[in-house]
Amino acid sequence: QTFPWVETMFNDQLLAGRRILVTGGGTGLGKAMAARFLQLGAEVHICGRRKIVCDETATELMDLHGGRVVSHAVDIWTGGPLTDLINNAAGNFISRSEELSPRGFDAVANIVMHGTFYVTHAVGRRWIAAKQRGNVVSITVTWVRNGSPYVVPSAMSKSAIHAMTMSLAVEWG
């Protein structure tokens, strides 16, 4: 007996025709996701705060897997609409909460919460205006449900992303 879903799941062109933006795609989990999307036939766009890191990752991934990876220093892209958004960008540092400065808190909240909203909002507005379907995946952490010491700005910001993603799923869905 054959299972059609197995053939689809292991199809090396599963994501052909998809244009996926991965925020924070230059390193870590974002880089790994971008590599897999590329292997599955997607055109991948990566963005991050450090353009040189994204440029190096784009070159490395294309050398390894072929395909197309476009690097951006911000959430601006050209050449057609995106089909998918992976909200992966994050920033964090370990700090005792009582020693946390307002600037330290804002550094994390601006990257994690504000940046994620701004990119999602920009992409979503384009999809709505074009009457185009799209997919958003937002990477969060277990701290959303149970908290964690020494990472209060990240825990708060990731909780906001979780709430945004659920709210927009209902509103835009």
Can you give keywords for this protein?
173 residues; alpha/beta; 5-stranded parallel sheet; 6 helices; 5 strands; 50% helix; globular
Give a verbal description of the structure.
- This protein is α/β, with parallel strands linked by helices and 173 residues long.
- It is built from 6 helices and 5 strands; from the N terminus they run H-E-H-E-H-E-E-H-E-H-H.
- It has helices spanning 4-9, 28-39, 51-65, 102-129, 143-146, 152-172, and strands spanning 19-23, 43-47, 69-72, 84-87, 135-138.
- It has a 5-stranded parallel beta sheet with strand order 3-2-1-4-5, sandwiched between helices.
- The chain is globular.
- The termini are far apart.
